[in-house]
Amino acid sequence: FAIQFSKVFVLFLKATFIVYYLFKHLSTILKKIRKLFSFALIFQLFKFNIY
What we know:
single chain; 51 residues
């Protein structure tokens, strides 16, 4: 039981850390995603123009 609990606890810590990290870097991640999305959109339009 103790081993199982420690595994769950470690997973919980990792999840908390990941969530904290994501919240900390959310704005930059969103900016990057927006940039990537606009690039993809431009690429799609470009592709449609070629064919």
